[in-house]
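Write out structure tokens for Aldose 1-epimerase.
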Amino acid sequence: MVETQAFGTVRGQAVTAYTLTNAHGVRLTCLDYGATWLKLEVPIASGWQNLLLTSPDISGYADLGSYHGKTIGRVAGRIGAGKYAQALPANEGTTTLHGGPHGFSTLMWQAQAQADRLVFTRHITSAEDGFPGNIDVKVTYTLTPSDDVLIDFEAATDQPTLFNPTNHAYWNLNPGDDTIQNHQLTINSSQHFEVQANKVPTGELLANAHSGFDFARPTNLADALAIMQTTVEKGYDDIFLLTPHTPDMPIAKLTQGPRSVTMYSSRNALVVFTANAFGDELNFGAKTSRPYIGIAMEAQTASSAVSDPRYGDISLVPEQPRHEQIKYHFDY
């Protein structure tokens, strides 16, 4: 079943919300602006509980610097100046963050709703987003009968370019207005990337063991964040290198009480961000915006791959389309 609802306007363009519901009553809602994952609602005794941080109206998404729930690309994460052969548009000092000032998250997409999936497509020119090459992109959200959400990212290009997309959903599994500090997190990782002051990775790896980065076993986020209070950010905005794994092996699991989300991806990195400096200028409806109100877990290829082939390949070349998938399974 597919339902549609008007969701305001962005820069003169009407935005539509599309909702899918499976046989268990799980509901997935997306916007055509930013190909945004708006809600993931699971059935509870009193109705539904949304597991994502969601702004109640389009004003929360219209700012070009807002990322919650949005599709991120062409390249997720940060690319430092000079890391790529061609100069890329910067939007964080000299750094290109999340596809730059005109990335996927800032665009209107063409939507097609089907019984179990929402398909968003976009032709993006080099003149539009500042990356080399014109690309055709498709982002498909599928809600399965077994309470999985699959996000498939596909792209083809007419010139060599980059493609390393992700989704920037923020999770909070609490039924009430509590932070993620009462959640447990597990990550299939033993190393994380050293970063410079501008958060661009140096290319060197650091061990997770015996530090606040060790999530090899289920770890209380309150305890982990307490360790991180000695850092500048007092939380996480970090890139974990995933242990070699097959696509059917979980890369991360977030749990609070009976609710959990388990992530799967064939790629080699997970960026974790714990909303360290969120203030009350943001509006998440029933969840009060403040530090640690949500956690973003962004599966991707390590951003160091842009200049270091040891960490993967994020190139997209003519006649060789690319496809990446992130899978989420929900228990509630």
